[in-house]
Specification:
The protein is α/β, with parallel strands linked by helices. Helices cover 23% and strands 29% of the residues.
Length: 262
Amino acid sequence: MQQRMIWFVLGLIGILGGLAWLQRPDGNLHVIVLPTVGDAILIQSPAGSFTLIDGGRDPIGLAVELGRHLPFWQRQLATVVLTKADDQRIPGQLGALRRYQPALALTPTIVRGEWYDLLREDATPIRQLQVGQRINLGGAQLHVLAVSDGTEGGSVLLIEHRTVSILIHTGGSAGDNALNQLAGRRIDLLIYPWQRTIDNPALQRLQIRAIAFSTGFQADEPALHSMYERKQLAPQVYHPKLNGAIHLVSNGRSITITTQSP
């Protein structure tokens, strides 16, 4: 009996070791638009650390998605970011904070209540997002281009890894002016609200290779563009409701985008 137990333990250790080997950092940047209700983006840096941007409206759904993409032993996040403090982003992030401990929290405004209390319990520093901030994500850089409040507000973030750029603009028109500094620049992936119009001069001045549409922003009069019209802005167009998780992988020179569904 004792010998069987020893073999069982050794086998279990081998299985866990194999899983850990498969889930080790690969030196690439990973940006995953999660198929949650509301906005949630998971970033794995080239060094292997994880950053969660927003969280969506469903804490259980987000916890399930994080469990799919984070190593089973992982219980820490490098950073959690709120691009806007609203019910399209905070509830899901609460689910993450109950399970994972972040080293840093970034928010446009200090959010009192459970979000704040959970971070304080873990002694996590809370910093306000400010235009011009640059945060090292572990081999990739996060740049804060805009921070604004109100129904048309939201933060505009740029993630850079060598020559690859991912632009996160999931709020309203208040952040559009920040895109002027990127005019003529190649954007490998733009994350942008489905309900906002693509007839946006600020977008027309970018060289966009792919768009992943987000669902957090709610417009009074949603844009009614067809998929054909949306593809005029970028050759590759994705939506979490159609494609599931949208996963960009980059070595800093090229990108590959895969989806959960074919």
